[in-house]
């Protein structure tokens, strides 16, 4: 490890990179990481609506001590602040228009710069980039190491999307779908527990008007069509890791950590402390 450190002139590698430096070469679908530099991970999470990418991205960011940056949150945060960009954004939202790539990118750049000023050196991006154009712009401000593409079998995904409920009072999201697919023809079964609300929200659950089977299917079709070029963009750079979720969080989380070579990350962190 000391020779590696000397060769790459790492003064203070992040715990994550330190782990990689001391481990044997990855043998799983994990793409080769770029030359280690003195910073934390810069990852992207891709996945269709309903796959649970926010959940896994949040968990990983707390494990790796990097911020989870979701573009939806950036928009909401900006809307609640003041300034030229906020005014511009309010106007667009009030007119019911889509927020452009340029504005999303301004918000992201602002967030990354603010993070850098606070000493942040990594992130997990969620919901960005959506287009090759955005990916190209992103290349100018970040050095993406890895793109995790989360996948879920279509029938389960559809059922999950249709199980989405929102509390009409507190606005929190829940999922009433209880997935229990039996294994068939060599295909493993899958079960996923519902995400039920606390008692006080239970009677106030509503289904979004656009969560009908027809609309969900169309949303997924559009997602696949639009996401393909972005996936291909990162695949051709050897940065894309496809991960098929084997079930709910209890089954998927350990497998995801394994695929990312992070399965003993917490133990190593504790041992190093
Ligand atoms: Zn509620």
From TrEMBL:
This is Uncharacterized protein. It comes from the Eukaryota.
């Amino acid at each position: 490890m000391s020779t590696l450190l000397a060769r790459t002139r790492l003064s203070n590698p992040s715990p994550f990179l330190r782990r990689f430096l001391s481990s044997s070469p990855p043998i799983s679908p994990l793409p080769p990481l770029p030359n280690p530099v003195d910073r934390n991970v810069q990852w992207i999470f891709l996945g269709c609506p309903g796959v649970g990418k926010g959940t896994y991205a949040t968990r990983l960011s707390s494990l790796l001590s990097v911020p989870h940056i979701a573009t939806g949150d950036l928009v909401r945060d900006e809307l609640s602040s003041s300034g030229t960009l906020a005014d511009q954004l309010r106007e667009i939202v009030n007119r019911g228009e889509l927020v452009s790539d340029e504005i999303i990118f301004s918000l992201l750049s602002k967030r990354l710069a603010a993070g850098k000023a606070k000493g942040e050196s990594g992130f997990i991006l969620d919901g960005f980039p959506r287009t090759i154009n955005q990916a190209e712009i992103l290349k100018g401000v970040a050095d993406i190491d890895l793109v995790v593409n989360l996948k879920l079998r279509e029938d389960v995904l559809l059922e999950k999307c249709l199980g989405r409920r929102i509390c009409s009072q507190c606005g929190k999201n829940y999922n009433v779908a209880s997935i229990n697919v039996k294994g068939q023809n060599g295909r493993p079964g899958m079960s996923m527990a519902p995400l039920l609300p606390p008692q006080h929200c239970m009677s106030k659950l509503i289904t979004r008007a656009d969560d009908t089977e027809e609309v969900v299917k169309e949303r997924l079709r559009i997602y696949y069509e639009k996401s393909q070029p972005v996936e291909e963009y990162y695949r051709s750079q050897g940065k894309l890791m496809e991960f098929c979720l084997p079930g709910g969080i209890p089954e998927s989380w350990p497998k995801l950590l394994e695929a990312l070579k992070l399965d003993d990350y917490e133990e190593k962190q504790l041992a190093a402390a």
